[in-house]
Amino acid sequence: MMRAAEERVMRAETSVDELMDRAGRAVAEAAWRFGGGRPVLIACGPGNNGGDGYVAARHLAARGARVRVAALAEPRSEVARRARTAWDGPVESLAEAEAAPILVDALFGTGVTRPLDMTASDPLARLVEASHFSLAIDLPSGLQTDTGALLAPVPRFSATLALGALKPAHRLQPAAERCGTVLLADIGVPVSTHWHEAARPSLPAPGPRDHKYTRGMVMVIGGGMPGAARLSAMAAFRAGAGMVRLYGAQGGADALICRTIDDVPAGLADARVNAVLIGPGMPPDACGRDLLESALAAGHPLVLDAGALRLIGETGVERLADLPAMAILTPHDGEFEGLFGDAPMPGASKIDRALAAAERCGAVIVHKGADTVIAAPDGQVAIAPPNSSWLSTGGTGDVLAGVIAAMRAQGLDAFAAASAGVWLHAEAARRAGPAFVADDLTIQLSGALAQCL
């Protein structure tokens, strides 16, 4: 997509040299700001990423920076050779270069398609380790751009300057962890795509005429682990739902109106239900299958999580074709493989697999994890920005499912509801700080929601 966008710009009479100059200026600006006047070493490769590095060196030198260049090899493209010629300073050997406080990686960026040779990866690791601040141009060298795979041992950078647009590897693991803080440089290349980062949603606040049913009613159907369903129900309330009906948990819970499993058919027949969440804490047994059949047949906007996903996986993948239009599925890696693992896509990215799954079942897929991907059947994709690693604790997925159900009940379409729910969940985790439990997460949802009104 990025290459196609660059070609469109160049057909409109913007030369490749001009694009490289814009990129190099942006790199120089970042290195200057973060460097604070400290010496800079730019490691240049043989391609256009290296050309960006030579341009950055020239602009840094013009500002009075103490800048050195170390090259892996001579430039191979015409534009990179011209950039090298315009740099009038010395060029050292990368293998022998001494470290500097500020290290700029201009070796390969997004151009890597095979594992790096040790003549590149070893010096790069040494120089990054010895630096105070390391900056990668577009991507740290050794990362596969579209999948986020590591094609070599890649050190963790302080920051990465994405040129023109974020690339999948900036948000997909394990690459995203190596990028450090990701910055975006506008180099004048408009990119048109259905792929975006999950952003803070804009949500309406209740008006003076609203009441508990106009704000959206969520029905949560759980089962053998009542705590999971209660977490989902509380999360739906905290995320703005006006009413939550909880099924599958005996006894009361704060702010919840509870029912028993026997009430499910009657509850589903209530026309005021705006969204149904089924699966949290629900065992994949005969009772669960009956509940799932009832929910699938009811015709309400549906969010399927945990036990419901396992039941669908156990009854056969052909069952995916029976899902109501634009249902929302929230699988983690294991559940995703249970649902779609019979059609592997070797070498495909998490984005590609989520998109294929969404198209296959006509549903929105929230493929959870450290790099949550939301995919819709029409090709829309939202990737969550890096979130708290403390979300790796029991019950946080139940909270996410409840938030998504609340968004759906309040009238958002399936893709928007999933995207908004993922953002609110991550923001609540950020507010909760370290070592939280799922109950703490629900408490922080009100503050996260306030950011969206």
SSE arrangement:
Blueprint lengths: L1 H10 L4 H20 L4 E5 L3 H15 L4 E5 L6 H9 L4 E3 L8 E5 L11 H13 L2 E5 L21 E5 L11 H5 L1 E5 L9 E3 L19 E5 L4 H13 L4 E5 L9 E3 L4 H5 L4 E6 L7 H13 L3 E3 L2 H8 L13 E2 L3 H8 L9 H12 L2 E4 L5 E3 L5 E3 L12 H14 L4 H19 L5 H13 L3
Parallel strand pairs: 1-2, 1-4, 2-3, 4-5, 5-6, 6-7, 8-17, 9-10, 9-12, 10-11, 12-13, 13-14, 14-15
Antiparallel strand pairs: 15-16, 16-17
Helix pairs in contact: 2-3, 3-4, 7-13, 7-15, 10-11, 13-14, 14-15
Distance between the termini: 33 Å
The major pleated sheet works out as: 10 strands, mixed
Q: Strand arrangement, largest sheet?
A: 8-17-16-15-14-13-12-9-10-11
**Residue windows where pLDDT falls under 50 for at least 5 positions:** 251-255
Oligomer state equals single chain
| Helical segment count | 15
Mean pLDDT: 91
Task: Work out the strand percent.
Answer: 15-25%
* Helix and strand composition category: alpha/beta
Helix content: 25-40%
Rg measurement, Å: 25 Å
The number of distinct β-strands equals 17
- Tell me, briefly, the overall form: elongated
Description:
The chain has 453 residues and is of the alpha/beta class. The chain is 39% helix and 15% strand. The chain has helices spanning 2-11, 16-35, 48-62, 78-86, 118-130, 175-179, 226-238, 264-268, 286-298, 307-314, 333-340, 350-361, 396-409, 414-432, 438-450; strands at residues 40-44, 67-71, 91-93, 102-106, 133-137, 159-163, 181-185, 195-197, 217-221, 243-247, 257-259, 273-278, 302-304, 328-329, 364-367, 373-375, 381-383. The strands form two sheets. Strands 8-17-16-15-14-13-12-9-10-11 form a ten-stranded mixed β-sheet, with helices on both faces. The protein has a seven-stranded parallel β-sheet with strand order 3-2-1-4-5-6-7, with helices on both faces. Strand 1, helix 3 (48-62) and strand 2 (67-71) form a beta-alpha-beta unit. Helix 3 packs parallel to helix 4, helix 7 (226-238) runs parallel beside helix 15 and helix 13 (396-409) crosses helix 14 (414-432). The longest helix has 20 residues, at 16-35. It is elongated and about 80 Å long. Residues 251-255 have low confidence and may be disordered.
